[in-house]
Amino acid sequence: MPIHPTAVVDIAAEIDGSASIGPHAVVSGPVTIGPDCVLSPAAIVMGHTTLEAGCHLHSRAVVGDAPQDLKYHGEASYCRIGEGSVIREGATVHHGTAAGTATIVGKRCLLMTNSHVGHNSELSDDVILVSGALLGGHVHVGPRAIVSGNAAVHQHVRIGELSLVGMLARITQDVPPFCITDQGGNVIAENRVGMKRAGLTLGERAELRAAFGAIYREGIGRNAAVQYLQDTMKTEAGQRLLAFYARGSGMRLYDPGSAAYLRLSSASKRL
């Protein structure tokens, strides 16, 4: 087992023989480290945390520390990092608050430098947090979403599948799937490049473009948007968009008189 002699490893930890733990790394508590995981120098993993196979914690990443929540009083809660995920320098992931709850990072996620995942958040597979991105507690991020640099996401917010949150964005309400936001958290366009790269079919992309045109460019309200999606979404991707809207009570749609809406309308004429 390649554990550097200066590393500090708790006797309660379970570490696969193929894992590598570098100089001055710390493994504290009943941590489980799976096959082929790497802890770079000075990486820290704590508590009831599980690193699945192939995870890499870079220098000074901290995973599994206590939540920044005044309701937390030492209850046993959990943190799980999915297979193949990479956590870069200075990034932090906190475990859950209430007893038995967990913070979950999915497979193949990339948490870039100094990003933060708050307690009880859940990242689906293939999520990217760009450097400095901050997720409050109980945030859910859908598959293949990207939260850009220094964006801040309020607690109890959902970030939809394949969405792209803009750099420096302030996200206080749900971001629907397949869209792009500006710094204010307003939806400004559908994520055409992301959808194409993800392999969505022409039919799916056309259906989603039509949906965003109806909801945002025409400025219909949330109830009307749900009804529109129920009537028109036939593809698998469209059904996922409908499910997101149908579950959400805090969706913010464009005010047709807002500056953001006018910018979107002008942009749409050029597409």
From TrEMBL:
A Pfam cross-reference name: Acetyltransf_11
Superkingdom classification of source: Bacteria
Keywords, sorted A to Z: Acyltransferase, Lipid A biosynthesis, Lipid biosynthesis, Lipid metabolism, Transferase
UDP N-acetylglucosamine O-acyltransferase C-terminal domain ranges (all copies): 174-247
EC number per UniProt: 2.3.1.129
Any GO CC annotation of this UniProt entry: membrane
GO biological process: lipid A biosynthetic process
Top EC class of this enzyme: transferase
GO molecular function ontology, one term from the record: acyl-[acyl-carrier-protein]-UDP-N-acetylglucosamine O-acyltransferase activity
Protein name stated in the entry: O-acyltransferase
Record organism: Lacipirellula parvula
